[in-house]
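Exercise 7. Given the encoded structure of a 249-residue chain, write a plausible sequence.
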């Protein structure tokens, strides 16, 4: 495998292109279980019929775990939004439609979103009273089994040369409540400093999915707390501030 061409560097992972393939190489800090879980998630999502890069191999390169999958030639939706600001509304519509398509699928073998959130809230840097409140709120939310991407943002969508949108990075995929996934996407726009798009996104998601905005908002402290266990100090501070909101206004 040729590792001469780096196409992306993300959170202790480096992605290379070798002809028709991408090779995602993980740093030593990644456990075997995490790498295999990511590959398994992606393999399971392949069965749903969604347009995603297909996995070809899980291997080791110079002692580091690596996943080999299809290279998709195109631009991310984030790049297109930046290059064509006049088409922002059109791209945002496509973005929400793709998320709703993902959430229309079922994949019974994926981990359950609620289980993952309970585990992360237990590890969050919050006092016991706040953690108890968040666990109670999470347990009281409706149980669904829709496919949730877990990191659905415009940089994880590649529009191929023929116009087909491909969704990448399934490492956080679970099955659960679609509104929790929407709350996560809303917070990702906030973390990126794009509050205007966050609000436009939430309005559009709720309109297209016929979901009450208040329902998605009820998920936000829960999602923020579960996401606060990773990321840099600034992100953690921001997410923890959301996690301690008693009721989102």
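Solution.
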């Amino acid at each position: 495998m040729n590792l001469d061409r780096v196409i992306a560097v993300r959170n202790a992972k480096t992605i290379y292109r070798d002809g028709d393939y991408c090779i995602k190489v993980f740093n030593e800090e990644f456990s075997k279980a995490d790498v295999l879980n990511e590959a398994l998630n992606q393999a399971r999502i392949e069965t749903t019929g969604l347009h995603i890069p297909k996995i070809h191999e899980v291997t080791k390169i110079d002692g580091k775990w690596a996943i080999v999958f299809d290279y998709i030639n195109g631009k991310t939706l984030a790049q297109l939004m930046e290059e064509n600001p006049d088409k922002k509304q059109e791209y945002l519509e496509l973005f929400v439609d793709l998320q709703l398509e993902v959430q229309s699928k079922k994949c019974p073998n994926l981990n359950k979103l609620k289980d993952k959130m309970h585990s992360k809230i237990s590890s969050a840097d919050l006092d016991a009273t706040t953690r108890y409140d968040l666990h109670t709120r999470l347990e009281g939310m409706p149980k669904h089994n829709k496919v949730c991407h877990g990191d659905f943002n415009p940089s994880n969508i590649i529009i191929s040369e023929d116009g087909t949108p491909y969704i990448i990075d399934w490492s956080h995929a679970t099955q659960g409540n679609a509104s929790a996934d929407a709350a996560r996407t809303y917070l990702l726009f906030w973390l990126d400093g794009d509050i205007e798009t966050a609000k436009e996104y939430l309005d559009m998601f709720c309109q297209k999915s016929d979901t009450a905005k208040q329902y998605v908002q009820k998920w936000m402290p829960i999602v923020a707390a579960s996401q606060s266990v990773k990321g840099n100090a600034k992100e953690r501070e921001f997410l923890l501030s959301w996690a301690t909101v008693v009721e989102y206004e």
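Remark. Strands lie at 6-10, 13-18, 21-26, 55-61, 64-70, 74-76, 146-148, 157-160, 165-167, 174-176. Students should compare their own answers with the one above.
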